[in-house]
Amino acid sequence: MNKQIVYRSLAVAIVALSFTRCKIPAAVKPREEKRTVPASYSGTSESDTSNMATLQWRNYFSDPYLVALIDTALKNNQELNITVQELEIARNEIRARKGEYLPFLGLRGGAGVDKVARYTNIGAMEANTQIKPGKEMPEPLPDYMFSAYASWEIDIWRKLRNAKKAASLRYIASMEGRNFTITNLIAEIADNYYELLALDNQLEIVKRNVEIQSNVLRIVKLQKEAAKVTELAVRRFQAQVLNTQSLQYGIQQRIVETENEINFLLGRFPQHVDRDVAGFERLTPAAVRAGLPVQLLDNRPDIRRAEQELAAAKLDVKVAKARFYPSLGLNAQIGYQAFDPAYLLKTPESLLYSIAGDLAAPIVNRNGIKAAYYSANARQMQAVYNYERTVLNAYIEVANQVSNMKNLDSAYSIKSNQVETLAQSVTISNDLFRSARADYMEVLMTQRDALEARFDLIETKMKQMNATVNIYRALGGGWK
């Protein structure tokens, strides 16, 4: 009769577990991510596979001062070093997940004493128990034990292995995140370096203009003494000189801030940044070699990171799904236990051992597991959208920079002609003014236009160099 009850109970348990194995709540099936990109960028050839992103940054940037700054930043930048520690955290997460599907082994030891009340079942039995003839059970009763124990959850549904694989994918994603940080760090330093060179050149132009305008002011004062011009002309020229002089202080402040931004990226306190000021005007933008859009999938670290995070999110869904299935665990223990150290190693009397297996599955109140499953599905959809957004953003960034470099090249050519024309106009206006054939307002306006044009030319040159940096970053260059 008892055997029939046991068999029936086991049958009910197996049926319940089987029902639980099959009864999994339906979730929205995430769609597959779109991996297609246009065949080419606007204005480029579909057959041109040459890509500047394949160049190492040391070969892409030729200025030795800039190379030295980047070298220092790659060693000392705090954000990059924080990312390296995130890699270590991700690596330890792999170790933790791997340990979950391996057997747990350990040693256990203990000692204690126990006094049971005499007028209880156990106390009465101990009172009537003799170890040897004429030798009763000691009271209070000591207890000594040492053993080895093991536990192991058998990974039937690959729940633990998938969790470990997801952690490995996130570690790879962290590595790609570090690469993306390197790409951005190199680009930020190069951008600030070219801006610093541009500011230096603008400051030099201001100083030259102050000198030129001061000379003109002296001439105007002499002409005023000769009654050729009025005091108004003197005041207007003097105001122009003062206005130009004031510009240099704003530029000097920007130079200080840009230097300190570079120092911050290099992980050091403010100091002078070595640079080649004279070489700025000799800089020429690199020829655009954007390659094919499909190459972004391999070159851009942020796309590669999004891809790994998507793969990890898919495995998370499998892990969450496996929690609805029965889990099988094994537990074992072997050792010695006795109330007297003299008997502790006596075999087989003091020997203890056990082995047990357990099968468990959730049947009632599975809300927590359901919530985790639905959340895993939602995170997978997030990862799909994030991957597609990252690819789209990368394509648009490159397309913008390809167009930007073409337009800046045309703008620089026109600005160069404008500067040359206005430089000639300044010379002509000064000559005409000395011979009293031009009004002083014409001279002032011409000088102002020439100064603004020179500023704009340097600004355009800086934008050109920044564009070469930005397209290199947009294509995924710098981290290799």
Task: Give the SSE layout.
Blueprint: H1 2-22, H2 57-60, H3 64-76, H4 78-100, E1 104-114, H5 121-127, E2 130-132, E3 135-136, E4 141-154, H6 159-225, H7 231-265, H8 296-299, H9 301-322, E5 327-338, E6 351-360, H10 367-434, H11 440-474
3D architecture notes:
This protein has a four-stranded antiparallel sheet with strand order 1-4-5-6, with no helix packed on it. The chain has a two-stranded antiparallel sheet with strand order 2-3. A hairpin with a 2-residue loop joins strand 2 and strand 3. The chain has eleven helices and six strands. The model has no long low-confidence stretch (mean pLDDT 87). It folds into two domains: 356 residues, Outer membrane efflux proteins (OEP) (Up-down Bundle); 85 residues, Single Sheet (Outer membrane efflux proteins (OEP)). It starts with a helix and ends in a 6-residue tail after the last helix. By secondary structure, it is α+β, with helices and mostly antiparallel strands. Belongs to the outer membrane factor (OMF) (TC 1.B.17) family. Keywords: Coiled coil, Lipoprotein, Membrane, Palmitate, Transmembrane, Transmembrane beta strand. InterPro entries: MdtP/NodT-like, OMP_efflux. It is a lipid-anchor. Its main location: membrane.
Describe the main β-sheet briefly.
4 strands, antiparallel
User: What is the number of helical segments per DSSP (H or I, 4+ residues)?
Assistant: 11
Give the rounded overall mean pLDDT: 87
Give the CATH superfamily of the largest domain.
Outer membrane efflux proteins (OEP)
| Order of neighbouring strands in the sheet with most strands | 1-4-5-6
CATH class of the largest domain: Mainly Alpha
Name the beta content range: 5-15%
Which fold name is given in CATH as the topology of the largest domain?
Outer membrane efflux proteins (OEP)
Helical amount: 55-70%
Number of domains: 2
Low-confidence segments: none
- The topology string of helices and strands comes to HHHHEHEEEHHHHEEHH
Structural class of the helices, strands and pairings?
A: alpha+beta
